[in-house]
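Quick question, first post here. What does this chain look like in 3D?
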Amino acid sequence: MARAVRWVAALAVVVAVALAGYWAGQRTLAGPAGQVGEQASVVQTVAEATVGRTLSLNVTVEQPFVPVAVNALAGTVTWVRSGEEVVAGDVLYEVDTVPVRVVAGEVPFWRVLTSPASGEDVAQLQRALSELGLYRGQVDGRFGLSTVEAVRLWQRDAGVAVTGMVGLGELVAVPALPARLRLGEEIVLGARLGGGEPAVFAPTGELRFSLVVSPDQAALIPLGASVMVAHEGYTWQAVVGEATTDQAGEIRYLLTAPGGGMVCGEECATLPASEHTTLRAQVVVVPQVSGPAVPVAAVHTDPDGTAWVEMADGSRREVTVRASAGGLAVVSGIEPGERVRVFGDGPGGGPVAPGPGEGGGAGAGR
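> Answer (accepted):
Ran it through. Tokens below.
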């Protein structure tokens, strides 16, 4: 008899536990209104908003330099110019206080220039003196009396010995001016020179703007994305072009101006005289779009890609996602002031399909 009582008591406990589990499950599945199978939701009013997304990244500017002149003076470097832009007649450096000046030209200065020398090197000197307003004769490449007088005026203005001739090593020719030039590694203040040192390097004019990113960052950047490159007081607009992958797995995007050509346009001369320069940039991965906005969690998609929202009254409204970023989606098909339900995932929908340019990952600027 006692055994039978214990068996009945145990059975009663099992039944009670089963009933409690069933009750708890029903409470978990029930929504706020007690309807089984519905998720909890909140109602939110649609409002106007602007969404967009940028990445703050570095842009690399590669600028090849080539040697264009060697030093022909022996002595100690007593002065050097910093990297600012130079024009015809500017002093690049001094050796034993003798100035080395720059002029535009393709022919190296290889001899002492004095009367009655003639040639393209003389013509280069005449053109420079003409730009400085010191020579009024014809640029004929002949070192005549008018050239001698112009050189004397130039020397007098510079405060150096007035000889009427230009010594070997006192002039260097570069392909174009104005330009930002780079001095050789041995042309430094206090250095002892013997002659023959690479003295002046000039840019080739080939500028390459590129964006080097990781694969995760590359996944966020669409081809043709707009890039705003900042340099000193300038802002240059660029677009993302073709991509290559290096041995380290990093992706390098070539940047061009929107209409093609160099990003810096007519302001390339403001870049420093360096083969590699790093500039800050903002990459627009989601262009700014304004319009009626709802939380991303309010937008659902059907298997065929149709996007929709559930209105406050439970009806379904199809929408078009124009852009999404930062948890908001700008949509068409709904008006500000209307009210929508926001779910965790939404009944039968799943998360919103990304708008134009939307992606995951870190690094969003806004």
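Residues 55-63+206-286 form a domain with the Elongation Factor Tu (Ef-tu); domain 3 fold (CATH 2.40.30.170).
The chain is about 15% helix and 35% strand.
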